[in-house]
Design brief:
CATH superfamily: Aldolase class I
Number of helices: 11
Bound molecules: 2-phosphoglycolic acid
Helix content: 40-55%
Number of domains: 1
Number of strands: 8
CATH topology: TIM Barrel
Shape: globular
CATH class: Alpha Beta
Strand content: 5-15%
Distance between the termini: 15 Å
Length: about 260
């Protein structure tokens, strides 16, 4: 059984103080939930402090981006080693906002995925089609291509390594728009992603990889996605910014999984 992952993507929101307040207000009992991975991907400057605050809880720390080199003359960049040292375990890579606003292409995403594995970080790979691609009927091809290119050159050697990968299906048109994909469409996309993983890695390993959905997920619709066998959780932007709302989404998935 794959463990569901509920992931907060705070994007460029929350100062250090606001990030710390979120965790102070986050319901104590939920900080110890088991059976769900609760991951908070915070801005870089909050990571070290949140890592200390998360000690002794089951919350997991994530970053939203990184450079692929371990160090070097890359002004303004953050390396995988720096993330590891402050206690980061997951890193979002290839988010459509980075592809769109910072010209990240599949080749860069591929370098970052390789680097994350090398330095012991778990990548959260984001893939998804634009509205135009969807309207042209290219969704499946776009997803398969993004998966293939992101994982190019990686081999199914280490089973443990692949168990750490999360792939987020994030249709670009659903992000931040309040218009999520339909549950059935998201499930179908998740199946296409898993097939693409199988083409690359063989039949067995992709059964361990979590494929989640992201794009306008909120308290009212999260179980529409998480209840589907092909979808192993959610990547949540706007609705993860309030601790009560994030907590209620975790509770909803927890109760649903316990039946
Ligand atoms: P949203 O963002 O939940 O605000 O739509 C999701 C994401 O970008 O990961």
């Amino acid at each position: 059984m794959r463990q569901p992952a509920i992931i907060a993507n705070w994007k460029m929101y929350k100062t250090l103080t606001e990030a710390e307040e979120f965790l102070q207000r986050f319901p104590e009992e939920l900080g110890h939930v088991s059976g769900i991975e609760m991951i908070i991907c915070a801005p870089f400057v909050a990571l070290a402090s949140l890592s200390r605050q998360m000690e002794g809880t089951s919350l997991i720390l994530g970053a939203q981006n990184m450079h692929w080199e371990k160090d070097g003359p890359f002004t303004g960049e953050i390396s995988p080693l720096m993330l590891r040292e402050v206690g980061v375990r997951y890193v979002i890579l290839g988010h459509s906002e980075r592809r769109m606003h910072f010209s990240e292409d599949d080749e860069i995403v591929n370098k970052k995925i390789k680097s994350a594995f090398t330095f012991g970080l778990s990548p959260i790979l984001c893939v998804g089609e634009s509205l135009e691609q969807r309207e042209r009927g290219q969704t499946d091809a776009v997803l398969a291509q993004q998966v293939r290119k992101a994982l190019d050159g990686l081999h199914p050697r280490e089973e443990e390594m692949w168990g750490r990968l999360v792939v987020a299906y994030e249709p670009v048109w659903a992000i931040g728009t309040g218009k999520p994909a339909g549950g059935a469409d998201a499930e179908q996309a998740a199946e296409v992603i898993r097939l693409a993983l199988q083409e690359q890695l063989g039949q067995e390993l992709p059964t361990k990889i979590r494929v989640i959905y992201g794009g306008s997920v909120n308290e009212a619709n999260i179980t529409e996605f998480s209840s589907r066998p092909a979808i192993d959780g959610a990547l949540i932007g706007g609705s993860s910014l309030k601790e009560q709302s994030f907590a209620r989404m975790i509770q909803a998935v927890y109760h649903e999984r316990r039946g």
